[in-house]
Structures are given as structure tokens and as C-alpha cells.
Fold:
Amino acid sequence: MNIQITISGLPRHQPKPVARRRSRNGFLTALWLKKNLRPALAMTAARSGTWHIHLIGDAAMTEMHRRTMGINTTTDVLTFDLRDLRTDRRYLELETLIGLEEARRQARQFHHPVAWEVLLYAIHSLLHVQGYDDRTARQARRIHRREDQILLALGIGPVYAAGADAGIQDHRPS
Structure:
């Protein structure tokens, strides 16, 4: 598998702890995210290409959501499949925008690390370009089930279903 992943908006390494204080993102770094995305990619049909992931704040995400979808609110993740329609699914040319502030809010609400929420959003984006959708309830169940299968295989567990199992109606990711 030859897929180049670039990540912006995160530190490459975790800063050294000062007086045992955790950083705002916990253990979320570009290296941690890449380390978890490589095996996730191997669980899909993608075999070559590029994946650019940008973690951005609410203001930038609201602007992009308005520009691309006509919706003037922030959101969790936006996926841009840059491939030609005839391109094989094994080739990836993906641009993913992740709302870091939204990930923080959701992680706090569901009592898990922000890193897990960001990873969920990235996997959601990846599955969209692999043929999964979430426009209907049936499609949403299918993509969320696959997200949780991948997260389970990574040793993290069902991040999306954890909120659903708690009886919480959430909107993640769409």
C-alpha cells in the first residue's frame, strides 16, 4: 500500500508535559493519527494515492460548510473526493476537513478522548470515498457499523455506537 497521508493543524509530536499537565488534545498528534490511519486504510480497498487531512476551528469549518453545502453552521467533517469519476476505488485522492472544536465538544459529551473522535471523523471520510453513504437511515447504520468495526480492530472500540448505546441521539458524523 502506497498512500501518502499529510496532516495539518496538529503537533507532530506530543509536547513534553509540564508538571504532569495533559495537553488540550490529550495524546492526539499527527503521528498518533497516522499510526492509526495506516491499518484503517488497509481495511479498505484503497491501495495508492494521497490523503490530506486538515484540522480546523469552528469559524473556518462554518465558512467551508457554507461555501460547499450552503449551510451556515459548523460541522464535524467535510469530505472532498478529488478523483475523476472513472478512477478506481483503489486509488485515493482525498481531502478531509475535520472540525477540531466540534470533536472536542463531542468527545467531552461522550466521555472519550478527542483523539478517538478525530479518528472516527477521518475514518468516516475515508468510507465515504469507498462507496459508503449516510443519506438514509439504512445507509447511516451501514457506515456507522463499519466505522465501529474498524475502530474495534484498531483496539479502540465502538466510538460511534458508544453514544447510541447510551441512549443519546447524536449527529456524528454526517
User: Anything to note?
Assistant: The first helix runs from residue 30 to 42. The mean pLDDT is 86.
